[in-house]
């Protein structure tokens, strides 16, 4: 491993830029600052392009050596550099840079279509639920927050490495192969048996699913509540409906 002790180092400057969406898009890279995520991704075959670790982190986590040995570029950094490249209030002492995941779509499995989900925490939580309930494809439309936003990655944990993602699929493309299920706040019913894979459409809590997308729905599902609140958080609502579909009998 090489040693970096200066925040003005060109490698440090480059990795700091990855906090910006524009630079992530230009380079096709993103950052993970969580050893558990990095370790789980490694066990699934995802090797970082670069990795930055402090000497204290190495001492406390000697198992990191097995990952460092596979990475093309490894850097030991001091606390000052660690703080400068981190997006966290309390830097973890480890930061890995990954290539963004190529688009992939499997038409034989359940899918999640996300319409204008702008909150990073909500998106990350929905991705974890998608893994939990076997919604293996996730389609993000142009109104969604960047998948590789550090806050999304933090909330999603290792889910980003376990799903197929598409940014180009249109909901209309799925009409022949899927039962499309939308989620209006009111006027929907219960999920009924589907003879094809399901594509669940979720919209933002403030605006719901776009009306043009609603028109493509084969089923409209609404969560029955006590009525004492106006609506559920989209991440919570999405998890409830995914669980209902996953366990439907």
Automatic annotation (TrEMBL):
Keyword rRNA-binding: no
Keyword field: Methyltransferase, Transferase
Record-linked InterPro entries: Alpha/beta_knot_MTases (IPR029028), MRM3-like_sub_bind (IPR053888), Ribosomal_eL30-like_sf (IPR029064), rRNA_Methyltransferase (IPR051259), SpoU_MeTrfase (IPR001537), tRNA_m1G_MTases_N (IPR029026)
Sequence ranges assigned to domain MRM3-like substrate binding in this UniProt record: 9-96
Gene Ontology BP, a term: RNA processing
ATP-binding recorded as keyword: no
tRNA/rRNA methyltransferase SpoU type domain mapped to chain residues: 112-242
SUPFAM superfamilies the UniProt entry points to: alpha/beta knot, L30e-like
One GO MF term attached to the UniProt entry: RNA methyltransferase activity
Family named by the database record: Belongs to the class IV-like SAM-binding methyltransferase superfamily. RNA methyltransferase TrmH family.
Protein name, entry field: Uncharacterized protein
Organism: Candidatus Falkowbacteria bacterium CG10_big_fil_rev_8_21_14_0_10_39_11
